[in-house]
Amino acid sequence: MAHAVRALWPGGRALTWRLGGRPALGLPAQSRAGLTGAAGGPGPAATTRKGCPRLLGAAALALGGALGLYHTARWHLRAQNLRADLSAAQLSLSSRLQLTLYQYKTCPFCSKVRAFLDFHALPYQVVEVNPVRRAEIKFSSYRKVPILLAQEGDSLQQLNDSSVIISALKTYLVSGQPLEDIITYYPPMKAVNDQGKEVTEFCNKYWLMLDEKEAQWMYGGKEARTEEMKWRQWADDWLVHLISPNVYRTPTEALASFDYIVKEGNFGTLEGAMAKYMGAAAMYLISKRLKSRHHLQDDVREDLYEAANKWVAAVGKDRPFMGGQKPNLADLAVYGVLRVMEGLEAFDDLMRHTHIQPWYLRVEKAIAEAPQ
Q1: Structure confidence by residue, pLDDT tens digits, 136-193
Q2: Which pathway is this protein assigned to (predicted)?
Q3: How many other CB atoms are found less than 10 A from the CB of residue 244?
Q4: CA separation (Å) from 34 to 2, 15, 26, 43?
Q5: How far apart are alpha carbons 168 and 184 in whole angstroms?
């Protein structure tokens, strides 16, 4: 509202000066004579006519300012009421969901989902899947993680793919539509990738299924919505693919990474020992192929640094998050991907050699302060 006042008043001063200081328009001699008093000064009629434009201009300015302030205040009040109503609805809806996340803790896609769930204070149980046997997800024909089981009353839904999980749950929280209806908006589709392998893709996975009022509340404008979708996809299509080449860059880093994976994962004693050493050796070699496949630089750290600084530049200096005053889905996705490197040499290098640390710590704090 303060911005509206400042916008109105300067224009008002300029208008008043023009009306008050503008010289009288030239009139024919007879007209001027008819408006002149006996002493040669302006008569009562002239004074009245000169005063009318001033009074009308001032009155119009005051009325316009009052109407502008009124409509601004009304718009803000309606927006606040809508936010309050939707926030209350989100709390009610989230309490009706029972969520179980099947994951690998060190998987960047699973980390994205946890960042979303934690930020939105959605309670969930975690099932750590054994990466060798994967017995924990034998119920599913979809064999990758994350998988989310969502119980809503008598309805049990399985959500696959990290971006589908996030989009579907956010749509549910904002719109209140039944989750079983929402997941039909993200149908799976079989495709063949560049390596000739059949993969499952999901339609619309970066899109929230909202009506116009809900989308306005969420984004404020189309540009913000498009920006969020663009950078969510960037996190999946590019940033994720920089993780393995960087954490397995050298034999030493590969061994340290698998030591971390074994400690955090669900491995048996023998499986853990084999995974630590054989997995480290295998992933060191695989990371070289990934480097070639994604056309990375000789020093893959440079690609990681460039990606981080590109993200920081996109967020900009005038807002703490891409979402403005709070993280949006793109903030949470990028944070979730990078978080899996914490404690590793690649993460420490990233914090030292780029400008991403202040943003990263702000997202970390926002998630930690989410109401539990």
Answers
A1: 999 999 999 999 999 988 899 999 999 999 999 999 999 999 999 999 999 999 888 8
A2: Lipid metabolism; prostaglandin biosynthesis
A3: 19
A4: 49, 29, 14, 9
A5: 10
User: Would residue 124 show up in a list of annotated catalytic residues for this protein?
Assistant: no
User: Is the pLDDT score of 61 beyond 80?
Assistant: no
Question: What three-state secondary structure class fits 149?
Answer: strand
Annotation says 203 is catalytic: no
Q: What is the mean pLDDT of residues 272-277?
A: 79
The dihedrals phi and psi of 211, each to the nearest 5 degrees, come to -80, 180
Which of 109, 260, 305, 321 is labelled catalytic? 109
- Asked if pLDDT for residue 368 goes beyond 70, the answer is yes
Q: In the Cβ-directed half-sphere of 157, how many Cα atoms lie within 13 Å?
A: 20
HEC profile of 178-221 = CHHHHHHHCCEEEEECCCCCEEEEECCCCCCCCCHHHHHHHHCC
Q: Which of 52, 70, 110, 142 is catalytic?
A: 110
How confident is the model over 32-48, as pLDDT tens digits?
Answer: 333 333 334 444 444 44
Residue 367, C-beta contacts closer than 8 angstroms, at least 6 positions apart? 115, 118, 119, 327, 332, 335
Residue with tokens 């074994």: 262
Peptide bond into 23 cis (omega under 30): no
Bridge partners of 324, per DSSP, are 321
Task: Exactly one of 52, 70, 102, 104 is catalytic; name it.
Answer: 104
Q: According to the model, what pLDDT value does residue 5 have? A: 33
Q: Is 104 a catalytic residue?
A: yes
Q: What is the pLDDT of residues 214-252, one digit of tens each?
A: 999 999 999 999 999 999 999 999 999 999 999 999 999
Give the Cα separation of 88 and 360 in Å (integer): 28
Q: Among 52, 70, 102, 107, which one carries the catalytic annotation?
A: 107
Residue pair 265/105 in contact (Cβ under 8 Å)? The answer is yes
85-90 contacts: CB < 8 A, separation 24 or more? 86/174, 86/214, 86/217, 89/173, 89/176, 90/120, 90/173, 90/174
| 110 a catalytic residue | yes
